[in-house]
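Q: Predict the bound structure with 2-acetamido-2-deoxy-beta-D-glucopyranose.
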Amino acid sequence: MASFYSLYKTILFTLFVLLTSASSSSSSTYYLSNIVVNSTAEFINHTAISEFRILNRRVLAKCPDPNPYLSITTASNSSLSDEGFVTVHVSGVLLPSKGDWVGMISPSYSDVSSCPFNAIQYQQTGDLSQLPLLCHYPVKAQYLSKDPGYLRCKKKECKKYVKGSCVERSCSASLSFHVVNFRTDIEFVLFAGGFATPCILKTSNKLSFTNPKQPLHAHLSTIDSTGTSMRVTWVSGDRAPQQLQYGNGKSVPSKVSTFTQNDMCSAFPKSPAKDFGWHDPGFIHSAVMTGLNPSTTYSYTYGSDSAGWSGKINLKTPPAGGSDEVRFLAYGDMGKAPRDPSAEHYIQPGSLAVTKAMADEISSGNNVDSIFHIGDISYATGFLVEWDYFLQLITPVASHVSYMTAIGNHERDYVGTGSVYGTPDSGGECGVPYETYFQMPTAAKDKPWYSTEQGSVHFTIISTEHNWSHNSDQYEWMRKDMASVDRSRTPWLIFMGHRPMYSSVNGVFLKSVDEDFVKAVEPLLLANKVDLALWGHVHNYERSCAVYQKECKALPTKGAGGIDTYDNTNYTAPVHAVIGMAGFSLDKFPSDADKWSLVRIAEFGYVRVHATTKALRIEYVNANTRKLEDSFQITRS
Ligand SMILES: *[C@@H]1O[C@H](CO)[C@@H](O)[C@H](O)[C@H]1NC(C)=O
Ligand SMILES: *[C@@H]1O[C@H](CO)[C@@H](O)[C@H](O)[C@H]1NC(C)=O
Ligand SMILES: *[C@@H]1O[C@H](CO)[C@@H](O)[C@H](O)[C@H]1NC(C)=O
Ligand SMILES: *[C@@H]1O[C@H](CO)[C@@H](O)[C@H](O)[C@H]1NC(C)=O
Ligand SMILES: *[C@@H]1O[C@H](CO)[C@@H](O)[C@H](O)[C@H]1NC(C)=O
Ligand SMILES: [Fe+2]
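A: Predicted complex:
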């Protein structure tokens, strides 16, 4: 650990020297070494950084001569509802420019002046291309040219008449920003100079949320395998315990937790979470409904008289472990995307279509019992306001059925903090926001592995980011957990973790598959007759043969309807599927593939699984067309 840490510091220091010495030799462009340029190109291709993300890498210059007519206002001064769009109006512009843009800043008192030393902090999220600027990160931003009339000055206004004729004409633009209730007030700041060399022109009026205490974003999880209890977790600006009301007049008080800037991890230099990416999460409330029946619909509300109440919501309990069947959806790497034309720090373009498709499936009564999200959850990565947007995005699914999660590198990893991989992928979150928002039935803090049973399936869910070596806590746990499965009760054993054991996509700098992980854990999968292993991390869909140590132990045959069927009556090896195609920019497959790889498709979507006692049926749904891209089944007679 210590050596990793100092190596990391050395690399950052070297970069810092490179960047700072380079910028002093040239005022308009920065010289970057080839290593920096190449790794940035690599990173952009694999993680979809928007141009906006490199915003804070610039030095804030003084705007030349702001004109006297310039104004930035919001269409209404009334306070903000829990979700909606704010129209921002910029007028009195004498010379419209491509480089004019508006940033949405929250809280309004944040310092958006120049913070040149943020350069080194930004490098922690992997982006090494530019120098930083703003001391506090904008939630989102848009160029005024998004208004098609702006640059051509279609909306002319006269600012000064001399003897009845207009001598000063000005131009204007309107922009729409999607806002969810993240509790802190907002202001809009007008910048010139583009994202690359911005300077502040003008600041708008401030806007507050009507009720920053409003209880919001309920999502469900199970606490055991009985299907008789359900945990509800929600967010509110109010610290006082609230009530969860359900069934026929039952009520249970919430347990309240939160986390602070001090709970964020950091190295030298500070992480985004610890510094300019921080946003106050309010309070996370959680309460457990008990005495329910499995596979049954109930309604619930949550809140308090002083903070406000949610509407009435329907939920469905999952089937009890050991019962005949279960239907669930699964995927990894979803994240979120803006519902307006804004640039944001991290955008996962497929996430909107995928959540919409799943919400349609659930609301059309398509018998979904639960959802499994296998790591890389929100991609907030130290920009904490993005958790509120993510929670708002998944509420249409996660408030109705249990939303079970596994941790990914973008929730947990940070150098020197006990993650297996010493990359700063969590931006300094170190799993703290993840564990607070997604309270899974794990044994202890920062031990995010657990098992659960629903219908005919036993799920063993691990953290690939925590020690999985022989004799580690987690290894011992998974060994015991899988050995204890009663296959007459739950005939199917599904293993889930974030980083895959099999993928045809191999990163150049960072490998998709860690051979040490495969060496340590794959034998356990075989020994315990795991039927199906589901993974994320790589952003596409790939299905294997029944495989062990890269060799096909069995191939599927065509069953009824021509569907690929793996007969596990005489078990040979696990079938692996990478399902990290739920939002993040898709990864292309290389043209050739190993024999173990049977199906490779890169489209946004999720898998739908139906497990009975005789068959495990898997369908890969394309979120945009709603067509099945792949289907297969595993059977046992
Ligand atoms: C970076 O890429 C350039 C071509 O774009 C190549 O010539 C150079 O060798 C690369 N440098 C490193 C360190 O990989
Ligand atoms: C990034 O993607 C673009 C477009 O697909 C490609 O032309 C380029 O070679 C890629 N760069 C790297 C470093 O993989
Ligand atoms: C909002 O308030 C500001 C000053 O506080 C004012 O200049 C502006 O005209 C108001 N806008 C509306 C739409 O009422
Ligand atoms: C993982 O656990 C093993 C067994 O306890 C231990 O030897 C090893 O040092 C641990 N690795 C790390 C990175 O902590
Ligand atoms: C499983 O193995 C047994 C014994 O070798 C054999 O009789 C049976 O046909 C096999 N079943 C299948 C479905 O392959
Ligand atoms: Fe990942």
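A: The chain has two domains: 39-207, 322-635.
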